[in-house]
Amino acid sequence: MTEKLRDADVTDEKPEEETDPETTPEINTCPECGGHVVRDSNRGERVCQDCGLVVDDEHIDRGPDWRSFSESERQEKSRVGSPITNLMHDKGLSTRISWQDKDAYGRSLPAKKRRQLHRLRTWNQRTSTRDSKERNLKQALGEIDRMASALGLPKNVRETTGVMYRRALEEDLLRGRSIEGVSTACLYAAARQCGIPRSFEKFGRVSRVGTLEIKRTYRYIMRELDLEMPPSTPREYLPQFASDLGLPQEVENKALEILEGTETEDIRIGKNPIGIAAAAVYAASLLCNAGYTQDDISEVTDISVVTIRNRYQELLDVYGAEFTTAKEAQEKFEEDATTEESADA
DNA sequence: ATGGTTTTTACTGCGTC
DNA sequence: GACGCGGTAAAAACCAT
After folding, report:
1. How far apart are CA A195 and CA A302, in angstroms?
2. What percent of chain A has pLDDT over 70?
3. Do A282 and A308 touch, CB atoms closer than 8 A?
4. H-assigned helices in A16-92
5. Nucleotide nearest residue A308, measured CA to C1'
6. A224 HSE (CA, 13 A, CB side)
7. Residue A306, CA: closest nucleotide via C1'?
């Protein structure tokens, strides 16, 4: 029965809050070139097919805790507040049985009835642990939903999170831990699993618990549930940063190129993938003359400018060396040009 | 706990606008 | 003078042992 319920819950969770494309037809043409805008719902981004403009960027505001960068955000300016929908935990069917052996009029009951009631009570008690778990789950799913939309994480991530949280709940991993903490940890894990990771810091900002506890809980959950998570890669962070920065497609492509070109290099090992991604963005911006400062990138990536500096130098060293070959002579030229420029300037 | 590595913090000087 | 950038040292965080 739990099995059935699980599936139903997870998939039915909130179908109506996720935006369907038809509700917002006017944004389906690119404001720049009038081209057709397609949605990459996996990443929660909308991109013009013709010029590569990321349409969702109109709302890069500095809102405190709840900015988000997905289609759902654009559509509704959806608030973080109370979740719009959440699990129908017990469908309001839970039963309360008074402890008093009285009937509806307050009269005492005959012994036989009393015994009957007693047994009912016992059984109700037995199932009420389930009820409390359901309540717990309900609250957790609400939180998960709230945070997910604040971070612009798409539906499949939320579903994965739900499944994971249930497992944690069933294995009694919640003891001594906050619902919020476990929810956030699960969400973090799910986002990574779905290939659209976000930094712990970002979760710390939208969660009620701090970054540290999220990390701790995340590790704990991973260990207890025997889940293993492959390390995240820099390129998984790239689309997010690109959209946060409103990066021109050209620069994003360049960054991706740099990342791909340096994928097998030693300079990566032991380094924070987010740092690499941030550095790649900066390097790309440099090569394309896009004019993003280290501060700009540091801001959205939560990577210090010092780290960006160090990483991007290494990246360019390797990248420059890599492309001495035929086809990329052009790239090489571009790079030389820009470095000379900055040297002159 | 400890030691090695990475990242951050804080402070610096330099050149440009 | 503010800003962007580079360098550095020391502190903090991280990770495996």
Report:
1. 19
2. 61
3. yes
4. 71-76
5. B7
6. 20
7. B8
Phi, psi dihedrals of residue A45, rounded to the nearest 5°: -130, 155
A 211-270: CB within 7 Å of strand B: 269-270
Got the DSSP string for A77-145?
A: ---SSS-S----SSTT------SS-B-TTSPBPPHHHHHHHHHHHHHHHHHHHHHHHHHHHHHHHHHHH
Residues 119-148 of A with CB under 7 A from strand C: none
Which residues, other chains included, contact A90 with Cβ-Cβ below 8 Å and sequence gap of 6+? Answer: A131, A134, A135
Mean pLDDT of A220-241: 92
- Give residue A65's pLDDT: 40
Rounded to an integer, what distance in angstroms lies between the CA atom of residue A75 and that of residue A26?
11
Question: H or E element: which one contains A280?
Answer: helix A273-287
Report pLDDT digits (tens) over A313-322.
999 988 876 5
CA distance A224 to A218: 10
Output the distance from A275 CA to C13 C1' rounded to whole Å.
15
A window 281-320: Cβ near strand B (< 7 A): 302-307, 310-311
